[in-house]
């Protein structure tokens, strides 16, 4: 762990201290540009939380609805969790281009992570206990994503980039993030986010603010 890194055990403990936001669940979003490292960070945070469930928005989006999954999320995920029930949802097969049966489930755990582009969007924020934003510039994130996916996915990325650009222009997440996450060679630094409610939070490094992460 570098000198800049924030122990994820500390972040996990602070998240567990938050009041529930969706029935008995603390719904925590990990948002950022495609390729910014959301999935890896969410996995590591879930581990620090003792195996917290993770909903990946890639599972409920589709080719035809890159950002049109809000109603599906509310019906299949938010509704059951708000009632203290396990959520069961269909997952999209990006190769077959169709949804499968409702075979995935999310228990109403103390913390449930939602990771993906748009996880902190306007329609979801009322149900969130916290919003973390991966602080990596758009072009750098997209470059990482393209290298990761290779030439076989270049057509997808050609369509994705303008779609993501439009989405965040109309419905930005970063201004509402309570925490910004910067990735270092080893570990992550969690900084105070643009949302002024984070001023009272302990889920930040004390020496830095959002300007340091720009």
Describe this structure in words.
It is a single chain. The protein is of the alpha/beta class and 214 residues long. The chain has a single domain (8-205), classed as Rossmann fold, CATH 3.40.50. It contains 5 helices and 10 strands; from the N terminus they run αβαβαββββββααββ. The protein has helices spanning 8-16, 38-48, 70-82, 138-149, 154-170; strands spanning 26-31, 54-56, 87-89, 92-93, 98-99, 104-106, 111-115, 128-134, 179-183, 188-192. The longest helix has 17 residues, at 154-170.
Low-confidence segments: 206-214
Helix percentage: 25-40%
Intertermini distance: 22 Å
Characterize the largest beta sheet: strand count, sense, and whether it forms a barrel: 6 strands, mixed
Going by CATH, what is the homologous superfamily? P-loop containing nucleotide triphosphate hydrolases
Give the amount of beta strand, in percent.
15-25%
Fill in the CATH topology: Rossmann fold
Lateral strand order in the biggest sheet? 2-7-1-8-9-10
Indicate the CATH class.
Answer: Alpha Beta
Structural class: alpha/beta
Order of helices and strands: HEHEHEEEEEEHHEE
Beta strands, count: 10
Shape: globular
By CATH, the architecture is named 3-Layer(aba) Sandwich
